[in-house]
Design goal:
mainly alpha; about 150 residues; globular; single chain
């Protein structure tokens, strides 16, 4: 389903001659193809599922945010703007993000559901969190909340 959205977005961007969108969607599709090839080598002929694609998109956004910080510190505002435009394009394909108080409440509910009590349960809790909220939560921030709850 997500792959179809990406292909449709590429076609629409090509018709509208939106160069940044075309380049960004092609980057996403190329990254997906690379990951699919790696999955096939592992014996998974289906390739990546939608949850894995969402994780890939989140990773791409995180990489671009890091690049923006480096470009701005280096005085390359033009490159930082380009990365920001790419983030906007990639974000179109992500579901609404769970952040702030909603994220804390979701994590608290999952911790209670998993009967997690100590820091030893963090791995299991994070795994369940990634399965349930794939692509909808920043797991770097979520791990801090989980650690705080279990400490």
């Amino acid at each position: 389903m997500l792959r179809d959205q990406l292909n449709d977005a590429l076609k629409a961007a090509m018709k509208a001659r939106e160069e940044r969108t075309i380049l960004t969607v092609r980057l996403i599709l190329a990254a997906l193809e690379d990951r699919d090839i790696a999955e096939r080598a592992k014996g998974n002929s289906e390739g990546l599922g939608d949850s894995d694609v969402l994780q890939l998109l989140n990773t791409m956004i995180r990489q671009r945010r890091e690049s923006i910080a480096q470009y701005e510190s280096g005085g390359r505002v033009d490159l930082a703007e380009r990365e920001g435009e790419e983030i906007a394009v990639i974000s179109r394909f992500l579901p609404l993000q769970i952040e702030g108080e909603d994220m804390v409440k979701a994590i608290q509910a999952l911790v209670a559901e998993q009967h997690a009590k100590t820091i030893k349960d963090m791995g299991r809790t994070m795994s369940a969190l990634k399965e349930k909220y794939a692509g909808r939560m920043d797991f770097a921030k979520a791990s801090g909340v989980v650690k705080e709850l279990l400490a």
